[in-house]
Amino acid sequence: MEAGFRPAEFDFPLSFTGPDGIGATPFDEVLEQEAPDVDGDDPAVALRQVLGQFATGVTVITTLKGEQVHGMTANAFMSVSLEPPLVLVSVDRRTKMCSLLHEGSHYGVSVLCETQSALSDRFAGRAGEGLPEPRFAVVRETPLVEGALAHFVASVQRSYWGGDHSLFLGRVEYARHHSGSPLLFHGGRYERLGQAR
Ligand SMILES: Cc1cc2nc3c(=O)[nH]c(=O)nc-3n(C[C@H](O)[C@H](O)[C@H](O)COP(=O)(O)O)c2cc1C
Prior knowledge:
3 helices, seven-stranded antiparallel sheet, 12 strands, three-stranded antiparallel sheet, binds flavin mononucleotide, Pnp Oxidase, Chain A
């Protein structure tokens, strides 16, 4: 990518800091750099393997397209701020989800519990025999996956360029959690919490 290149679809003032204190780094600070120093024949594969050492939970991001629910498995979810209450999700620009989210839209986040790996596969587009039919609860016109460990509804405040992903910063409007154990993802595999020591 050219130095200073700014995708047209992100053509709004990102260096602006709003009254709520939410700002962004200008694109011209993103310069073409050489490939990262990672061990392996294919740097992209090697980098993915290194990144995969960061253990995460697994979420399903959901939104409504008209009457229809769309869901996508995502582990690139993080809490950002308590005041204002903000969360962030990183969405591959090739996904359908990316085409559905924009400033002002809402997304749901369902943090999966340890028994929901088949649902994760389903919303990651992984075909499989006998995958469970998901059930949704609708809160603030936003679908949420039933049986999950935690739920958020967020409204998109800003979207940011993130290379081949887009970052959607959402203001939390609703949050609930239930008791249970989370589904984990590490090294490209689902895991569960070990026994407490
Ligand atoms: C455990 C796991 C985590 C994933 N995390 C993300 C993620 O954070 N962001 C993303 O864009 N895709 C992620 N994916 C891939 C998407 O779920 C997958 O591309 C999905 O089919 C996109 O759906 P859509 O194109 O129908 O919206 C993940 C997949 C798995 C199995």
